[in-house]
Model the fold of this input.
Amino acid sequence: MSVSASLTTLPPLSAEEAAHSARLGELIRSRIELAGGWLEFETFMELALYAPGMGYYSAGSAKLGRAGDFVTAPELSDLFSHCVARQCAEILRATGGGEILEFGAGSGRMAVCILETLAALGRPPERYAILEVSAELRERQRQRVAALPAPLRQRVTWLETLPSTPLRGVLLANEVLDALPCRPFVLRAAGAHALGVALTAQGAFVTRERPADAALAAACAQVLQGLPRPLPEDYRSELCTRIEPWIASVADILERGVLLIFDYGLPRAHYYHPERDGGTLRCHFKQRAHEDPLINVGVQDISAWVDFTRVATAAHSATLEVLGFATQAAFLLGTGIEALVAQPADTVSRARMASEARRLLLPGEMGEAFKVMALGRRFDAALSGFAHQDLLRLL
Done:
């Protein structure tokens, strides 16, 4: 996701969006009152994104693409999915076949492109499973998959929960971890304080802080102890303690193969740099980014960058091996994006693909902010996506 705007330039809500946001707002207000007037931001974010039937990812709305709130790499260009498919082919070859499980498949564009590319490479997965929490996105995925040839279409299935038996193959998580509810904090002289949500006299949402509970205080202390330089008083950021259980649950279903994580984020020392005061929490609404999660509840995305050091540590705890860590640009170069751009015979198509590739590769676009991490179990083959760059030393 890569857009920016001030609050004054945000488009107004439609009547339908305003009504939807008001309904969810009432639910959250009731939760704040039940909690005694102050709600953990983590809980607020979970309700805003995932409240059944009302949360941003649970209710029906056009989230992806030019008409939605943000554009992801698979929506920007099929070049991204072609490269991911090439990496999947390597993994499936090394594991002697297997399946692919994609978490949060968006519009289904990447799934369809991966299946078509793998079929062309002679390496289709035994099954392509999609775990999707949004009913609206699930329907869009079904419509895209329906256009596939029957031999590929019949390999696709949708899951409501993680599979009960371990699988062999590839797990894909593109912009999944950034949407896990996080815990914002501010460092005070007396220790870390949690940032939560309260209500004004008029019933509007407002940020309020209170001393961190034991779990948040311990998590903050662990982060601070591992940093190369101290953070100043009044420093604000966030951390996501849900990464560990998410990685652990995914590790439980991987018998042999690789989990590929694509997300915007940083190693911990860069994430919690003294000059990165304010954190990374961002909201996306109709192709504009801003930093106020307390408005437009239920109709805007809320996300935070990923602390990839936390991901790596969680992987080790779950007996997964960190096989690679690189920028998106390095991963795409390693999986042959340059050759793909050069394939079209006509100059118009090559020019279009070159333009798309620049957005995927350039540091000022998606190339540097987005990272790729490979976590594996019982897997020792080389991964071409990490042949150009090794950032493991930064974790």
